[in-house]
TrEMBL record:
Its cofactor is Zn(2+). The keyword Heme does not apply. PANTHER family: OUTER MEMBRANE PROTEIN, PTHR37425. It holds the Pfam family Peptidase_M15_2. It comes from Pseudaeromonas sharmana. This is Murein endopeptidase K. InterPro entries: MepK, TAT_signal, Zn_M74/Hedgehog-like.
Length: 182
């Protein structure tokens, strides 16, 4: 016969392990059954629209991301070399969820080539020399029907990346860089 000493501590640790293992399949299942993520964009500079699912069953969808990347391209140089950081789309999705709004997001500026950034920088003091737009990590947006101040407040509430407020230019800047606001 085995002589097993069961202490309160061993019993609690064993119970916690058993409970944790029983939850694992549910966590995996939850990411598989989470609602698909869809965004709608309009680029007023090109007149193009995209409405696509970009995430489903725990993974990003290449077709949707490709459509977004094209719409976010540097339209001035017709340059779509940079893939947009998928976390930016997650931030926009969450922003719309928090605002309770599924309207089309107007993309004022997405990706910028180094040449376009330098050109814009020469014309305006508000353009950063090492802008995250050049890394595919930033977008300037507005949503018709949503006050810009509310859009800014919603973006700040995400507590993710940078948020810039440009009321005279009618857009809010959102990026996936360090958390900050201006």
């Amino acid at each position: 016969m085995l002589d097993i000493e069961i202490s309160r501590r061993n019993l609690l640790v064993g119970g916690a392990c058993l409970m944790a293992t029983s939850l694992l399949p549910n966590v995996a299942l939850a990411s598989q059954t989470a609602p698909a993520r869809m965004l709608k964009f309009y680029n007023p500079n090109t007149g193009e629209r995209v409405s696509a699912y970009y995430w489903e069953k725990g993974r990003y969808l290449a077709d949707g991301l490709d459509e977004f990347n094209w719409l976010f391209r540097d339209y001035r140089a017709d340059d779509a070399k940079m893939a947009i950081d998928h976390r930016l789309f997650d931030q926009l999705f969450e922003l719309q969820r928090r605002l309770g709004n599924q309207r089309e997001i107007h993309v004022i500026c997405g990706y910028r080539s180094a040449q376009t950034n330098a050109h814009l920088r020469n014309k305006s003091r508000g353009v950063a020399k090492k802008s995250l737009h050049m890394q595919g990590q930033a977008v300037d947006i507005n949503i018709p029907g949503v006050p810009l101040s509310m859009l800014r407040k919603g973006a700040v509430s995400l507590k993710a990346g940078g948020v810039g407020y440009y009321p005279r230019s009618n857009f809010v800047h959102i990026d996936t860089g360090p958390r900050r606001q201006w």
